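Fold this sequence, please.
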Amino acid sequence: MRVLFLENDDSFSWNVLDRLPVDRSHVTIVSGRDRAAFREHLSRAAAVVIGPGPLDPHRAGLDGVVEEAAARGLPVLGICLGHQAIGLAFGARLVRNEPCHGKRSLALFRVSRHFPGIAGPIEVMRYHSLSLASVRPPLRALAETQDEVVMAIEHESLPIVGLQFHPDSFGTPRGEELLAAFFRTVT
């Protein structure tokens, strides 16, 4: 499977890449800001992963990337900043919350077609100060913290998922399982 990885100037990007259940030789890495490279490689991609980053999706230059991938019917996985980009693409709002940098939380997962066998509370590691609010169809909130911060979303019919937390972190013990489950369901 050819994966197009949008790198958004974040040191955690390399942790995410190491955790993807795809051989690194099958991953093309482009800057999230480089729209020409994104479009050039999109036609050869079987999936898109939008990595984390320190900005909001607009300032990171991610406007339109989710829509372009969705128009081609490509699976999209967004992590942290990528999760936020997915939410904004489908009408959610971005809100500032108390910074959660390197903090563990329990996320209560609902049953999902992208994460079969994963439901109930799981421990996740968070690194963010922005989050999604007003998630609405065609997205649904798939997981939330006890204080109702959205931790995961999925599209009702398209293979599109966002994770606010870091599945690449040691503080998310089931992170690799989540990543593997997503890729199994979209291949």
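The radius of gyration is 15 Å. Residues 3-186 form a domain with the Rossmann fold fold (CATH 3.40.50.880).
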